[in-house]
Specification:
By secondary structure, the protein is α+β, with helices and mostly antiparallel strands. Helix content is about 20%, strand content about 45%. A hairpin with a 2-residue loop joins strand 19 and strand 20. The N and C termini lie far apart (about 80 Å).
Length: about 325
């Protein structure tokens, strides 16, 4: 045997032994003593609204990659947030408590809206009991994200109606640092993650409230949003999609952000299983504009179709079969 072959054999054996040792360590530490899924979940849910931070977030899914610079400040009972998109058309978003302002500097458009009921990374929904009823949580180890030590937890669905997720939470604060949505074969459908972050960094209050007040030269829009009961609007889900509950229903005006609003309204109902959401949009059918379609991008699946005199759009980070179940169950009373 040649020397290089012997060396190769030695290194191969070493690599195998190293891999086996790594696997043994991972298995031995896969579920730490005292890991409490409910307690861990509550901590992660609270962290997004309890800590100040500044950093850069990146989203990747369905061939789309986007990044944003975010600052988040908790000052007593006041909550401030500033988000600036780093790619594509310039867009900035400012939040003070439940009021959100989105600015498009290029078109000089400013839109005020109430907080959307759909929770965005790094927050998680507050429906912990629903989540634990629909998913199993298992601690799988530790990792480093943006230079910080994070606990990694696998969130595995109990059925095929929803996707698995892998979550990274910073060990000291509990703040969510990364979230992967996984396909049935374990492939990553989409990822949201911090690439850099400074915990405890205080965002200047005027960097949020200033732009929300100084809007000279902007066309300011305040779309009306009216909270309404879903059943009182004449709709129901029969049968209900297992694990999902109605968490919000509102009627809002449609506008194409060019200012050419035509007075049309859309009803938006949001259903949650404690981790992900499905939104159902209902508006009058218009044969000139509406065409049936089903699309997928990353983990997001969308179905658009006609229900009698109504046009229904259903979208969520769930399998298309789940979207179809919502579509089949939606009934006009």
């Amino acid at each position: 045997m040649k020397a290089e072959d012997r060396n190769g054999r030695v290194w191969s054996i070493a690599a195998v032994l190293g891999a086996l040792m790594a696997c043994w360590v991972a298995v031995a530490s896969a579920q730490p003593t005292g890991f409490d899924a409910a307690q861990w979940l509550r901590r992660v849910q609270q962290a997004a609204s309890a800590h100040s931070y500044r950093g850069t977030m990146v989203f990747s899914g369905g061939g789309v990659v986007s990044s944003s610079r975010v600052g988040h400040l908790i000052d007593g009972r006041q909550r401030y947030e500033r988000i600036e998109m780093l790619g594509g058309p310039t867009r900035q978003q400012f939040r003070h408590n439940d009021t959100v302002l989105t600015l498009w500097p290029r078109t000089r458009l400013a839109v005020f809206e109430p907080m959307d009921p759909v929770t965005d990374f790094p927050a998680l929904p507050t429906g912990g009991s629903r989540l634990l009823g629909n998913y199993d949580l298992r601690w799988t180890g530790e990792d480093r994200i943006a230079g910080l030590v994070a606990d990694v937890v696998m969130v595995k669905p109990r059925d095929a109606l929803r996707f698995a997720q892998r979550l990274w939470a910073e060990r000291e604060s509990g703040l969510l640092m990364r979230a992967d949505v996984l396909g049935p074969r374990g492939d990553i459908l989409e990822t949201s993650a911090f690439t850099d972050i400074v915990l405890g960094e205080r965002l200047p209050v005027d960097s949020v409230v200033g732009p929300m007040k100084r809007l000279e030269g902007y066309r300011v829009m305040r779309p009306q949003v009216q909270r309404v009961p879903f059943d009182a609007e004449g709709w129901t889900l029969q049968p209900a999609v297992s694990g999902f509950q109605l968490v919000s229903c509102a009627r809002r005006m449609l506008d194409d952000m060019s200012g050419a609003g035509d007075g049309r309204q859309v009803l938006q109902a949001v259903f949650s299983d404690g981790l992900t959401h499905v939104s159902v949009f209902i508006e009058p059918y218009d044969g000139q504009r509406h065409r049936p379609i089903r699309t997928s991008q990353g983990a997001t699946h969308t179905s658009m179709g006609r229900h009698g005199e109504w046009w229904v759009t259903i979208v969520g980070d769930v399998p298309m079969s789940t979207v179809q179940m919502f579509d089949a169950a939606l009934q006009r009373r």
